[in-house]
Amino acid sequence: MATRSKKENEKNERLLSVIHLKTHFYIEDIVVKAVDGIDFSIQKNEILGIVGESGSGKSVCALSILRLLPPEPSCKISGQIYFKNENLLELNESQMQKIRGAEISMIFQEPTTSLNPVLTIGEQIAESIKLHQKLDHRKTWEKVVEMLTLVKIPEPFRRAKEYPHEISGGMKQRVMIAMALSCNPSLLIADEPTTALDVTTQKQILYLIKELQKKLRTSVIFITHNLGIIAEVADKVMVMYAGKILEYAPVNDIFHQPGHPYTLSLLKSIPRLDVSRGIRLKVIPGSLPNPIDKIQGCPFHPRCEFVKDICRKKEPELKKIGDNQFVGCWMYNNEEAIHFKKII
Amino acid sequence: MENSVLLKVKNLIKYFPVRGGRFSRIIGYVKAVDGVSFDIKRGETLGLVGESGSGKTNLGLCILRLREPTSGEVIFKNRDITKLKQTRISEIYKDMQIIFQDPYSSLNPRMKIGEIVGEPLIIHKLIKNKSEKTAKIKKLFEEVGLDHTYIDKYPHELSGGQRQRIIIARALAVSPSLIICDEPTSALDVSIQAQIINLLEDLKNHLSLTYLFISHDLSVVKHISDRIAVMYLGKIIEIGNSENVCSSPKHPYTKLLIFSVPIPDPEVKYEHIPLNDEIPSPINIPSGCRFHTRCNFVKEICRQIEPELREIEKGWFIACHFV
To answer: At what angle do helices B160-172 and B190-207 cross, to 10 degrees?
Structure first.
């Protein structure tokens, strides 16, 4: 009982809060509002899934947290990102460098292009260990082998001396995970880590990430377009569309009582292996919004089947509709709904 | 009965030579397609699934002779395509078309989309004059759900979903009876994927088409196909009714594939099946059953003797010693 409440406490401790984050790109005289005013937070020991289609701003959101975007004036990040009571947006480059890889690390989609082809995988893992932990050569190498064992790469001694082209895609992604976790970060951002992999390999990688998350008590932001993966890994889910959050709720609510029309339509538009054939897929009409176009009102209104007059004029704010469920939709425009920002 | 079979593939093989050493001699073969046989009935959709490297795309290309098969027969409408002379190949494209995966690289960026859709009509001399061409293009646009005002636009002005519609319209221009769809929805977003899947289903019903639907995504394949063939390292290891294959898979590999698909329901929990290694290279195909290196139920016989496809129920074939 005691251990459980300790775990609960740990879970309720906030690790990262993002307040009114806006990431805008300036290309000549065009403004691309990739992320346009989002608020969310992530607790310790929690997996937050961010789901969205291309152009929804999910990757830019992750890159903004790590400040891996081009400098001003071509890209402007505003708002606040509090990580362990520090606003990441106010740090200078060398302070930020101490956080990247050590406190917050990232796994990218394409393991093949993320690894340096002229260095052995051991050398690449050692690089971040040397940079952040200042270990001597022998200790570093021991740590490398320990990390490779942790991500279940067979024969870690031999593998550490191999080059990226000698190992398969799934192994490369394991190496990326080993590299990301080598300094024991408190937050791991995984941006579509399994999209380039086959289903069978994907399953293994998802299992590995979940297992390591439990073991190392790391918080994870898991970005994907695949709702099946979200259901499998996430504790909480954030549904993004056109740079905004449309719904933010625990994973069970998202799948069993989705609040936003977009979430609902998405769930009905995917073919499912566990449902018998003959059911016609629901179609969300129209196409994804062009990030250059300005949409007045709710960003989803041109494709929404429940669209009302107000949706075209005014943008809805996130409203609390359930225990922990927040939805940005005019359908829930009643006085009882508590303003989202007060809670976060 | 024989008449209802539209396409029959018999023992199709595609090997790519690997050269190396001094004088770049042939030192081995990549066995991309290694003896595949199946048939597709008129009006049916056969789904073909497999991981990358299983040879599914090569199989599709060999059927169309966009890649020359090494040996084997492809009998389409009672005619063996593999025996056709190179100069007469274009005849088959009047009746058989392909839709590619990537809508961004399969349209010529310098052509207006009206011209792209109209090109097959000119090549196959299906139109007499210009007005007939315009009318036909308009009709095709309507069929795939595109506004005809798009005719004078260029591919870069369109979104991924719209481009895929153009590619479908181009394939439909010659009124083919068989369309090979090679991962037609893999490059598309979730909300657009549903539009294209529904479009393909509607077209099939209206125009009585037959599809060979190639994809790595089992959920999509199950949704659209009447029958499913599962490919592994160049061979079909299970083929049968899609409901059967997906709800009670028999081959250990099919089981593994189906188990690996994430289900969009957080309450579905699975136990973890350990997987031995990844798909081996098609240059060194394992002896005996080609899946034995990853199979959890491997026995001595699997390492030595390659299992043949056996019919265990009507129309349901499995290549495993222990089913």
So the answer is: 20
